[in-house]
Design brief:
By secondary structure, this protein is of the alpha/beta class. The chain has four helices and seven strands, in the order βαβαβαββββα.
């Protein structure tokens, strides 16, 4: 069975959705995943960081790997391919972290930074089974 990659996108800027969808469906390098896009659109309920929407999406995802992206981020086109390579090399991994460039700043993915507030959520790919019932605090 082909591994599913669930891309959860919390969305408050609806006008960006055509660009985001096109990017993930047509502009990413070939990769080994069966892609699933989960668009978690902001409604009237307050959820400024998208935490409730991420929790809801995780409850709907049965298996595979997942990224939790915001609607203001487009990932490097080679990211999904690189994730596939890393998973193939490390089949028992439950979380894969990536460095992120944001302007002039680089968010390093290192063990000592792997705690809340030190990396962006979009820097992590999580295996659904690894996450289990763990959810973000709301």
């Amino acid at each position: 069975m082909i591994t599913r990659l669930h891309v959860v996108i919390t969305c408050t800027r609806h006008e960006l959705m055509p660009f985001i969808i096109r990017h993930y469906l047509t502009e990413m390098d070939p990769h080994p995943f069966e892609l699933r896009l989960h668009l978690m659109v902001q409604g009237p309920e307050p959820d400024p960081l998208g935490v409730r929407k991420c929790n809801e999406a995780m409850d709907m995802i049965p298996d595979g790997w997942m990224f939790l992206f915001a609607d203001d981020t487009l990932q490097f086109p080679g990211l999904f391919k690189r994730l596939g390579d890393i998973i193939e090399e490390n089949p028992n991994a439950g979380c894969v972290m990536f460095a992120e460039h944001r302007g002039n700043e680089v968010f390093i993915a290192a063990e000592e930074r792997s705690q809340a507030g030190f990396i962006c959520g979009g820097q992590m790919a999580l295996k659904r089974e690894f996450v289990g019932t763990l959810r973000f605090d709301t």
